[in-house]
UniProtKB/TrEMBL annotation:
Family label: Belongs to the universal ribosomal protein uS13 family.
Record-given protein name: Small ribosomal subunit protein uS13
Annotated keywords: Ribonucleoprotein, Ribosomal protein, RNA-binding, rRNA-binding, tRNA-binding
Gene behind the chain: rpsM
Region (Disordered): 95-122
Pfam families xrefs: Ribosomal_S13
Assigned GO CC terms: cytosol; small ribosomal subunit
Entry annotated with the keyword Ribosomal protein: yes
Single GO biological process annotation from the record: translation
Naturally occurring in which organism (per UniProt): Azospirillum humicireducens
Length: 122
């Protein structure tokens, strides 16, 4: 099991798939990293040499913003919107959908489970 950017990469998965376990690296960036380092697509994580793991780690540290730094940046962006008091910040503050979705019905993920209203029968 390789440890890259503070994340344990599953050993039995292909390298491209395993890299997507790192927050901030999706399928496209994973393919990009493998192509840059000449790692074949069918190679498994447990087949990587220590040198290849080190190269992957150095490439990710140098060229990509991942894990803690990325999470911190996203949190700071949301906090900035909330401090500004703009519409998107207010939606974040109230825990409602931010991107224009309807809330009359649906939006249960953001609003939480439905709360019964006393006396509303009909």
């Amino acid at each position: 099991m390789a440890r890259i950017a503070g994340v344990n990469i599953p050993a039995q998965k292909r390298v491209e798939i395993g890299l997507t376990y790192i927050h901030g690296i999706g399928p496209f960036k994973a393919k990009e990293i493998c192509a840059k380092l000449d790692i074949p697509a069918e190679r498994r994580v447990n087949e990587l040499t220590d040198d290849e793991v080190l190269k992957i780690r150095e490439t990710i540290d140098a060229d990509y913003r991942v894990e803690g730094d990325l999470r911190r940046e996203v949190a700071m962006n949301i906090k900035r919107l909330m401090d500004l008091g703009c519409y998107r910040g207010l939606r974040h503050r109230k825990g409602l959908p931010v991107r224009g979705q309807r809330t009359h019905t649906n939006a249960r993920t953001r609003k939480g489970p439905a709360k019964p209203i006393a006396g509303k029968k009909k």
